[in-house]
Sequence to fold (183 residues):
Amino acid sequence: MNSFWLYRVFTLVLVTVFSIVVLGLCAHASMYLNELLHIGVGVAGGRSYHYAVLGLVAAIITFLSTVPMLLSAVFLETSFTSYVIFDIYWLSILYMLWVSVGSVTLDDGSVLYLGRGNCFDYTEHLPQMVRVECSVTHAIAAFEFAIFGFLFIYVVALVAVAFQYRAKMHASPWTRSVRDLVR
Fold:
């Protein structure tokens, strides 16, 4: 077993689990978002808050793409989903998606909760739900940036390993499986 392939499997499993967590948190946040706006939290004037829906979409896309990548990595010796070039391209798209969604979550959360970084700064006259939903928004952003970090570090490491493989005068690494890079 090659250690970089295990690192790939570990990263994809972690990203899949975190995307399931984001899926649940965003579903929870989207359920209560209209109620929060109704009680007067956030900026009035018709601003829409898309962070929950974007988090749901990013989590679903990530889940639907990483699970087949994991299954093909474990059960198939080689498939196009484990090629170095496919991993670099697709996981780069995913990490750009996650950093964008994380940024939108922080921006919407900042506007929605009036720039308060600490969710417990709210006075007693606001319902407990505001504090809870503010904390949920911070948790969503934390998981989104964690997924971005895991994917980004894996892609950078994969590029470095591919260049090392090429420098050893082997054949081109781009259409090889990640499993074959380091032996």
